[in-house]
Design a protein that fits this description.
Distance between the termini: 42 Å
Largest sheet: 8 strands, mixed
Helix content: 25-40%
Bound molecules: L-MYO-inositol-1-phosphate
Structural class: alpha+beta
Number of domains: 2
Order of helices and strands: HEEHEEEHEEEEEEHEHEHEEH
Mean pLDDT: 97
Number of helices: 7
Shape: globular
CATH topology of the largest domain: Fructose-1,6-Bisphosphatase, Chain A, domain 1
């Protein structure tokens, strides 16, 4: 591991654990909605904002020349060529409701390539980490994707957006997918879903409408554990469509999602 990757990993882990402890231990009993974004159900809490402030403050102290892109508004160019992509709470609605499946997701990119990804899920007591070319670890144990089943035996994770028109379309895709797979799971955190693919707790994951901070770390975690990731056939994973699965399942699922029009509203 290069000195740079080791440094970026160390900083990402420390920032994620500090934010995770703050969020886990400091969650107000009366936590409410501080603001909404794309719709009345696309919520932000005071803890999302505070978590991003904690993380960006730590990054500014330890990596002052780096850029940052955060879900709650952090946006600095930097001069080092390194950009941090931060989701201070991935699974905000779960956090708001006191449900356990939320995470802190931090990725470090250099010239657009993700070098380090950390997804810390405090209520699970788990941290997934990956360094480009170095594999994926779950609480320091190496993990690999599950051997690919046939599509009809696949447990597939997905998620739904916050805008009604998109959700209607996504529900229609799910309706047509469900009879063709073992089952689906909707956990509420893309970063955790991608870690679950990496650790073999899901056979595959897909979702339309993610933001870079939702998937930046989790995509590297999934890829370094042996998954393929992408969007529409021949395209990179993006907000248009995110797909992750072991190689022997990936193209079959990707082709079905293409046929079902999972990539458009
Ligand atoms: C969430 C994603 C999840 C998606 C949710 C939401 P957030 O991100 O991680 O996959 O289905 O609708 O977008 O908003 O909690 O950071």
């Amino acid at each position: 591991m290069t000195d740079l990757k080791a440094e970026l990993l160390r900083v990402a882990l420390e920032a994620a654990h500090r934010a995770g402890a703050f969020l886990r231990d400091g969650r107000p009993d009366d936590l409410g909605v501080a603001a909404t974004k794309s719709s009345a159900v696309d919520v932000v809490t005071e803890m999302d904002i505070a978590s991003e402030k904690l993380i960006t403050g730590f990054l500014a102290e330890h990596r002052p020349d780096d850029g940052v892109l955060g879900e709650e508004g952090a946006s600095f160019e930097g001069s080092s060529g390194i950009q941090w992509v931060v989701d201070p709470i991935d699974g905000t609605v779960n956090y708001l409701y006191g449900r356990p499946d939320w995470s802190v997701s931090i990725a470090a990119r250099k010239d657009g390539e993700t070098l380090v990804g950390v997804v810390h899920a405090p209520m699970r007591g788990e941290t997934c980490r990956a360094v480009l070319g170095e594999g994926t670890f779950l609480n320091d144990a190496p993990v690999r994707v599950r051997p690919a089943p046939s599509l009809d035996q696949a447990l597939v994770g997905t998620g739904f957006g916050y805008i009604t028109e998109r959700r209607v379309r996504q529900a229609e895709v799910a309706r047509q997918l469900i009879p063709r797979v073992r089952d689906i799971r909707r956990a509420g955190s893309a970063a955790i879903d991608l870690c679950d693919v990496a650790a073999g707790r899901l056979d595959a994951y897909y979702e339309r409408g993610l933001n870079p901070w939702d998937y930046a770390a989790g995509e590297l975690v999934a890829r370094e554990a042996g998954a393929l990731t992408g969007g529409r056939p021949g395209e990179a994973l993006s907000g248009e469509l995110a797909v992750a699965a072991p190689p022997a399942l990936f193209e079959t699922l990707q082709g079905l999602l293409e046929d079902l029009g999972a990539w458009h509203d």
